[in-house]
From TrEMBL:
GHMP kinase C-terminal domain boundaries: 301-353
Keyword Transferase applies: yes
Listed GO CC annotations: cytosol
Source organism, top-level taxon: Eukaryota
Subcellular location: Cytoplasm
This protein's record includes keyword Kinase: yes
GO MF, any single term: metal ion binding
The protein's name in its UniProt record: Mevalonate kinase
Organism field: Oryza sativa subsp. indica
Upper lineage: Eukaryota, Viridiplantae, Streptophyta, Embryophyta, Tracheophyta
Family: Belongs to the GHMP kinase family. Mevalonate kinase subfamily.
Length: 401
């Protein structure tokens, strides 16, 4: 029984969501909330009929299982076609995967899971073929809320599958959560990122690639047309995240913005262009070294103003929501600036926490936000990306794997 695990972080977008899909720059950072996947590969059993692929999703609390023979029959594949290069999921393969999912009763209230399940079946069978195994997924991230849960799912899944395939190897240790997590080298990360992007395409339709990139590589990045620049921030950027708990779906929101762009192409091109300038300015400001109180305050004031401008343009794109507006109004009472993060339409909102803000005020802000039934998170910004645990990781989320 071969065992390995991987974890990948969620993200916040400081500037540029949606516009990044249309070629503008955006700025994003990893946060210390993770999705973890563990994989237990079963030996190729003598009892062929009993061999299954199992997926245990801890957060929705659902498990799925497919007989390996049925996977082979429907997907017309056995051996993985090679994990060393990422391939897109063809429309025919996606249709076959949909047939496999129809054989499961997914509760109507959790039907949004089918996109993630399709991405799982595509990644697993493309990387490992129809081998029997058990995959367990658990996450700190609220799903479908703008913190990149789909990307963290695809990155951690690709990471664990490619590690099991022997294509990705760990290079060094850091520890956390009682496990020996290890970092992965640059070329291997590139490969994981390319596979995760193919998974994101199944979930998002037309992703820019920023979410999987920041989840894979970590840190704070500027991203434009697939190009990634690492931003070296000398002063930590402190953000409060508020989850409005209003569910939404990134694929539909991205499609909505594209439709608006095709109806009003000149106006929307100007909006995307303005967002590009905001993201460029945000990326220069985060890299500015600020050594004293005055410099830090001026840096934060500029960031706050740019966030406010970006939020206005997101409203122009049609992706704000009354719950987001409630967060904006609530934080403004305390002179704090907020903007939505991720795809909007509900989901999460970022509030810039100035270094000089006293804890008592922050606690009051949180209490008022939570009185609206929102949920607040204080997160560390700009940490590590994908990490893996090869063999030896005997314990995962309470499950022996
Ligand atoms: N831990 C998980 N287990 C199963 N499926 C997941 C998990 N995390 C994400 N998903 C899949 O990803 C979908 C959510 O992706 P979506 O892109 O809509 O939101 P998000 O990634 O959280 O937000 P954003 O894209 O705005 O950052 C879920 O509906 C599900 O299909
Ligand atoms: C809305 C979007 O810009 C960010 C979602 O986190 C979509 C994408 O870039 O793929
Ligand atoms: Mg997503």
């Amino acid at each position: 029984m071969e065992v390995c695990a991987a974890r990948a972080p969620g993200k916040i977008i400081l500037a540029g969501e949606h516009a990044v899909v249309h070629g503008s720059a955006a700025v994003a950072a990893a946060i210390d909330l993770y999705t973890r996947c563990s994989l237990c590969l079963m030996p190729l059993a003598d009892d062929e009929a009993a061999a299954t692929l199992e997926l245990d999703l801890k957060d929705p609390g659902l498990t799925f299982s497919w007989p390996c023979g049925r996977l082979r029959e429907v997907l017309l594949t056995d051996e993985a076609a090679g994990a060393r290069e990422a391939r897109p999921c063809s429309p025919d393969r996606l249709a076959s995967i949909a047939r496999l999912l129809e054989e499961h009763e997914i509760p109507e209230a959790k039907i949004w899971l089918s996109a993630g399940l399709s991405a799982f079946l595509f990644l697993y069978t493309s990387i490992l073929g129809c081998r029997p195994g058990k995959v367990t997924v658990s996450s700190d991230l609220p799903m479908g809320s703008g913190l990149g849960s789909s990307a963290a799912f695809c990155v951690s899944m690709s990471g664990v599958l490619l590690t099991a395939a022997g294509v990705v190897t760990a290079v060094g240790g850091i520890s956390g959560e009682g496990m020996e997590w290890e970092l992965v080298g640059k070329d291997d990360l590139e490969l994981v990122n390319r596979w995760a992007f193919q998974g994101e395409k199944i979930i998002h339709g037309k992703p820019s690639g920023i979410d999987n990139a920041v989840s894979t590589f970590g840190s704070m990045i500027k991203f434009k047309k697939g190009e990634l620049t690492n931003l070296k921030s000398s002063n930590p950027v402190k953000m409060l995240i508020t989850d409005t708990r209003v569910g939404r779906n990134t694929k539909a929101l991205v499609a909505g913005v594209s439709e608006r762009a095709s109806r009003h192409s000149d106006a929307m091109a100007s909006v995307f262009n303005a967002v590009n300038s905001i993201s460029e300015e945000v990326s220069s400001i985060v890299e500015l070294a600020a050594n004293d109180e005055i410099a830090i305050t001026s840096k934060e004031e500029k960031l706050a103003e740019l966030m406010e401008m970006n939020q206005g343009l997101l409203q122009c794109m049609g992706v704000s929501h009354s719950s987001i507006e409630t967060v904006l109004r609530t934080t403004l009472k305390f002179n704090l600036v907020s903007k939505l993060t991720g795809a909007g339409g509900g989901g999460c909102v970022l509030t810039l926490i100035p270094t000089m803000l006293c804890n008592l005020v922050l606690e009051k802000v949180i209490a008022e936000l939570e009185s609206h039934s929102f949920r607040c998170f204080k997160v560390e910004v700009g940490g590590q990306g994908l990490q893996v645990c090869q063999g030896g990781c005997s314990y995962f989320n309470g499950d022996v794997v």
